[in-house]
Write a structure and sequence with these properties.
single chain, mainly alpha, 79% helix, 0% strand
């Protein structure tokens, strides 16, 4: 069961990634990916994986220790749970990047590779997007966000 849950976790998010990469200008993509509920499928997998292991999970995460974390990740359920959590967060980061890219008017041929990079190596894809965003965003946007003027 754990192996199956591990295997399906990413595939549950593929439709959302697919919309952002291959149908970025479709109005449904913006509507669907604007909801944080897109992260629910991998979080359901996470919940199923940890339901029977809450005491171990709590002990590992409430007082972080490298050896305890290594032991936790050495279990099939622990590694699968962390995988599900990472997949959920990556999807939320990707959806935010998608929305920001649309706001900035970044071309889909720029955003597509950035999103694909985020799927595979999220810290690098996200960092590269932040650099591009810094160059493309209005320099006085902070005041606009606060004052709405």
């Amino acid at each position: 069961m754990t192996g199956f849950l591990f295997e399906i976790t990413f595939w549950l998010t593929v439709p959302f990634w697919g919309l952002m990469v291959f149908a970025p200008t479709w109005s449904g993509t913006a509507r669907i990916t604007s909801s944080p509920l897109i992260a629910v499928p991998p979080l359901v997998v996470y919940s199923v994986l940890v339901a029977g292991h809450l005491p171990e999970l709590w002990a590992t995460m409430s007082s972080p220790d490298l050896d305890a974390l290594r032991e936790f990740l050495g279990t099939a359920w622990g590694a699968s749970a962390v995988w599900a959590q990472v997949i959920a967060w990556d999807l939320l980061i990707g959806a935010w990047m998608y929305r920001e890219g649309r706001r900035l008017g970044l071309h889909p041929l720029v955003m597509g590779p950035l999103l694909l990079g985020t799927i595979v190596l999220s810290p690098f894809g996200f960092a590269l997007f932040l650099v591009i965003r810094a160059f493309c965003d209005a320099p006085d946007r902070a005041a606009t966000v606060v004052t709405d003027e």
